[in-house]
Amino acid sequence: LVTNAYRYGGSKMVVDAGRNNGVTDIWVEDDGPGVPDSLTESLFEPFTRGDNGKRPDSTGLGLAICARIVKALDGEIVHEPADPRGARFRVTLPTA
Question: Less crowded by CB within 10 Å, the N or C end of the chain?
Fold first, then answer.
């Protein structure tokens, strides 16, 4: 998530975390152009790329791998638009 925010986000990135009621939330937010609406449904599927294939170092696997790891840990990962612009990803995991 941090690599995606660095590659595709703007000049600002925020990483934050907190615990509440037995869960830990981790947020990664950037101020870039955000995720196009056309990709939100398939964002966590393998080979989904928001750069229209323009980046040779991008395979479209990063978010799919993140989602599978989070699921294996009984967690959840979601995308939210950042305000006023950008992308925000929230990972929720059970607190050990």
Answer: C
Phi-psi region of 34 (alpha: psi -120 to 50; beta: other; left: phi over 0): left
**Residue 18, phi then psi, degrees to nearest 5:** -165, 160
Report the C-alpha gap between 92 and 50 in whole angstroms: 24
For 22, other C-beta atoms within 10 Å of its C-beta total 8
Alpha carbons 5 and 75: distance in angstroms, whole number: 21
With contact defined as beta carbons under 8 Å apart, do 33 and 5 qualify?
no
* Phi, psi for 66 (deg, rounded to 5): -55, -45
15: amino acid identity, one letter: V
Token couple for 41: 């449904």
- What are the tens digits of pLDDT across the range 16-57? 999 999 999 999 999 999 998 888 999 999 988 776 556 667
3-class state of residue 93 by DSSP: strand
Alpha-carbon dihedral angle through residues 25, 89, 85, 45, given to the nearest 10 degrees: -160
